[in-house]
TrEMBL record:
The chain crosses the membrane at residues 82-104, 111-130. It comes from Oceanobacillus profundus. Belongs to the peptidase M50B family. The keyword Nucleus does not apply. This is Peptidase M50 domain-containing protein. Coiled coil: none annotated. GO terms for molecular function: metal ion binding; metallopeptidase activity.
Amino acid sequence: MSLYLFVCLVLIIAPICTFIHELGHACGAKLVKADRIKINLGIGKRQWTSAMNNLELTWRSVYFIGGVTKTERERPYNNSEIIWITFFGPMFNGVAATVIYIILEVNTNGLLQLFFWFNVWMAVVNLIPFKFKGKQTDGFTIFRLISRK
């Protein structure tokens, strides 16, 4: 991989794919009628925050390292609603990968290929149930909720 593609992966592609993933969780929360939805991209000092209706987006200084979506609702979520919210993140990455794959059939491009594979990676890895250093994947959350039933 060239240095150019690596820099694009870290500074552009990974944050966009993370945003797609977190947007998926936000859409899942909207679907089950969340009262408030907050998307945080990155870590570190807050650079800017934008809010519209019940959605708030915060961009942090080290924007290329992770993201998290938090949702709130007066009435507690039931297990199936939490599963939907959780599943929508990886699903959005899967849909993005599918769209990019179709584009790649017409226009092969190294940057698009990275974008495709990073979305595939985010969709697949987030559905594998595991927990590491206090953090858990979406798959772990879904598995835990399904196994409780």
